[in-house]
Amino acid sequence: MFARPTAERIRDHSGELLICSDITVIFDKASGRYFQVPTKKLPAGIRNNAVDVIARFSTVFAWGTVISGILLLITNMVFSFFGQTTDVSHRFPLLFTIYIIASVFIHECAHIFALKICGQTFDKVGFKLHYGILPAFYVRMNKSNLLLWTDKVVVHCAGIWINLAINVVLFVLNYRFWQSADINVSLEFAVVTLMANALPVLSSDGFRVLLALSKVNEFRERTRNPKWIRAIRILSWVIVTIYGIYMVISFYLELGL
């Protein structure tokens, strides 16, 4: 349990290989693409140039990160449930905007920092619409595919974990000293978004953590993925469809159409 996973790595001008006992992940720098092949199918002698690598984080640390993250999420939900209020002031929009921007910034920085600790770099930071409807900022971390599974878990947990920890501190401080409805409502909104990101659907951090814990890489060709991954993808589209219908109905009701 306290041991750290090991593998072999080959890195040169053309790309990188992470050679594990059963599978090998290949990064081709020219195309920017990642491939996975059974280790037993590697050409003879290719491992002569490989160097041994050890995961940065142990199995205990990886599972501890997941379990403590779940406990932090439950704590956030309890604070949110008992602190519900809508009695906000005129300063709420400004405070809410500042808080959300700071939370997103800290979240993405946590991913980048964890990835850097593990010896890899991020590809890009951007904004996109998940499934064409759900807005999200993101850090593209394709090089996490070249990490051992415990390191992947920590990297993908990092953003949610730090947000949840900060939220708990702010909930306590607000309850003990500030007693601000503006802060409380902002934190409650953040809990909802973090819960959504923790669910293993919609290409969320929770989904990436589940893949890492299962020691599975998701393929671009969907038919090559395990059935449970395809089932999650179908569920994601169902959720998005329901959400889209709800938003359309709400919009029409707001306009009185």
TrEMBL record:
It is a multi-pass membrane protein. GO terms for cellular component: membrane. InterPro entries: Peptidase_M50. It is found in: Membrane. Its cofactor is Zn(2+). Residues 96-174 form the Peptidase M50 domain. Its main location: membrane. The keyword Phosphoprotein does not apply. Keywords: Membrane, Transmembrane, Transmembrane helix. GO terms for biological process: proteolysis. Pfam families: Peptidase_M50 (PF02163). The keyword Disulfide bond does not apply. The chain crosses the membrane at residues 60-82, 94-113, 153-177, 189-213, 234-253. Belongs to the peptidase M50B family. This is Peptidase M50 domain-containing protein. It comes from Boudabousia marimammalium.
